[in-house]
From TrEMBL:
This protein's UniProt keywords: Membrane, Transmembrane, Transmembrane helix
Compositionally biased tracts (Low complexity): 303-317
Keyword Iron-sulfur: no
InterPro entries (alphabetical): EmrE-like
Organism of provenance: Pseudonocardia kunmingensis
UniProt-recorded name of the protein: Magnesium transporter NIPA
Membrane-spanning residues: 12-32, 66-86, 92-110, 117-139, 151-172, 179-200, 212-233, 245-265, 277-295
Biased composition (Pro residues): 318-333
Region (Disordered): 303-339
C-alpha cells in the first residue's frame, strides 16, 4: 500500500481521502434510508419480516424527510467516490468503501442505544479484513489502460445476468436471505457503475473518444440504468434487513465486482501474479463469510426469527396434544345370568 502511495503521488492520496469520506456518507445514508423504508414497509404493530416494497410504497418512502436526507448523503458520497475513481485505479479506490460497515454499525449503536452483538462484531471484522486484503494485494500491481472495443457491452450483459439471478433468489425468499440477495444484486449493479465510470474517464483522458460521442453516451445510459436498478434493489434490501447488513453487502460485493471488471475491462490485472489472485479469492471468501455472519447474528435478524417461531418458541416445545381415548365398549352380559 505504501509503495502504491509513493508511486501514485498526491493524486492517489487525495483519491483515498475522498473514498474514505464517501464511505462515511454511504454509511449515514444507509442508516437514514433504512429507517424510512422500514417504517413504510413494516408498521410498528407488525413484527413479521419485511416484504417487497411496491411502487406505490416506494413513492411514499421517497417523500419521507429521512429518506431524502439519506439520498442527499448518498449523492454526496457518489460524487466523492466518482472523483476518487478518476484519480486512482478501481482496485485502490473501491475496497476502501468497506469502511462504511464499521461506521454504519457505530451509527446504529448510537441511534438505538444498543451495543452490537458479538456475532455482529465478528462479521464486521471479517468483512473489513477480507476487503483490506484486496487493497494490499492489488494496490501495488494495478495498472490502467483504455478498455478494448466491445468490452463494456460484454461486461454490462454479464453483470445484468448476475443481477437478475440474485434478484430472483431474493424475491423467492424472505428475511435475511432476501436482504442479502437483493443487496448483493444492487452491489453488482453498482460495481458495474464504478467500472464504467473508470472506463469512460480513461477513454476520454486518453483521447480515444470525445465526451459526446456514441460510446460515451451509451456508457452514460448504462450507468444511469445500473444506478436506478441498483438503487431499487437496495431499497428492497432495506425493507428486509438492517442497514449494517445492506452496507456490508454493498461494500464487500461492489469492490469484488469492480476489481474483476477492472482486471478484465481495463486490463488492471495484467501484472497481477497467479498467487495474488489466489489471495484475492481467499479474501473474497473471508469477506463473504463476514457478511453472512453479520446478517445471521444481527439483533434484527434474531428478532425476526423469534417472531416467525411465535412467542412460545423460546420457552421450549409445547407438549403433544392428548388424543382422546375412545369410549370403552359395553361389556356383554354374563351368559350365566341370561334367562
Amino acid at each position: 500500500m505504501i509503495s502504491a502511495l509513493e508511486g501514485g503521488g498526491f493524486a492517489t492520496v487525495l483519491a483515498i481521502v475522498l473514498a474514505v469520506l464517501g464511505a462515511g456518507c454511504f454509511a449515514g445514508a444507509a442508516v437514514l434510508q433504512h429507517g424510512a423504508v422500514n417504517a413504510e414497509s413494516r408498521p410498528a404493530t407488525d413484527d413479521r419480516p419485511g416484504k417487497a416494497v411496491s411502487m406505490s410504497g416506494l413513492r411514499a418512502i421517497t417523500r419521507r424527510p429521512g429518506w431524502l436526507a439519506g439520498l442527499a448523503l448518498a449523492a454526496g458520497g457518489s460524487v466523492l467516490h466518482a472523483t476518487a475513481l478518476v484519480l486512482a485505479p478501481l482496485s485502490v479506490v473501491q475496497p476502501l468503501g468497506v469502511l462504511a460497515v464499521p461506521i454504519a454499525v457505530l451509527l446504529t449503536a448510537v441511534r438505538t442505544d444498543r451495543r452490537p452483538a458479538p456475532g455482529v462484531l465478528v462479521g464486521v471484522l471479517l468483512s473489513v479484513a477480507g476487503v483490506a486484503v484486496f487493497v494490499g494485494a492489488t494496490a501495488g500491481t494495478a495498472v490502467s489502460s483504455p478498455p478494448p472495443d466491445q468490452a463494456t457491452l460484454v461486461a454490462s450483459l454479464v453483470v445484468a445476468g448476475v443481477v437478475l439471478v440474485l434478484a430472483g433468489v431474493g424475491f423467492a425468499r424472505s428475511g435475511w436471505v432476501r436482504c442479502v440477495a437483493c443487496a448483493m444484486a444492487g452491489a453488482v449493479a453498482f460495481g458495474l457503475v464504478s467500472a464504467l465510470v473508470r472506463a469512460v474517464s480513461q477513454s476520454v483522458v486518453a483521447g480515444d473518444v470525445g465526451p459526446l460521442e456514441l460510446p460515451v453516451l451509451a456508457a452514460v445510459a448504462g450507468i444511469a440504468t445500473a444506478v436506478l436498478v441498483g438503487g431499487w434493489l437496495v431499497q428492497q434490501a432495506f425493507a428486509s434487513g438492517p442497514p449494517e447488513v445492506v452496507i456490508a453487502c454493498l461494500t464487500v460485493v461492489d469492490p469484488i465486482v469492480a476489481v474483476l471488471l477492472g482486471a478484465v475491462l481495463l486490463g488492471e490485472g495484467v501484472a497481477t501474479p497467479a498467487e495474488t489472485w489466489l489471495l484475492l479469492a481467499g479474501a473474497a471468501i473471508t469477506a463473504t463469510a463476514g457478511v453472512v455472519a453479520l446478517a445471521r447474528h444481527h439483533p434484527d435478524a434474531a428478532a425476526a426469527r423469534a417472531a416467525r417461531n411465535g412467542p412460545g418458541a423460546a420457552a421450549g416445545p409445547l407438549p403433544a396434544p392428548q388424543t382422546p381415548q375412545p369410549a370403552a365398549a359395553p361389556r356383554p352380559a354374563d351368559p350365566v345370568h341370561r334367562r
